[in-house]
Amino acid sequence: MPGSRSAKAKAVPGVVEFARAANARGVTPVYISNRAVHLKDATQANLRSAGLPVADESVFLGLGTVVADCEQDGSEKDCRRQLAGRKYRVLMQFGDQLGDFARIYDNSPAGRQELLDKYDAWFGERWWMLPNPTYGSWEPALFDNDWRQPRDARRAAKRAALEVAR
Question: Which of 67, 140, 141, 147 is most open to solvent, judged by the fewest CB atoms within 10 Å of its CB?
Answer without folding.
Answer: 147
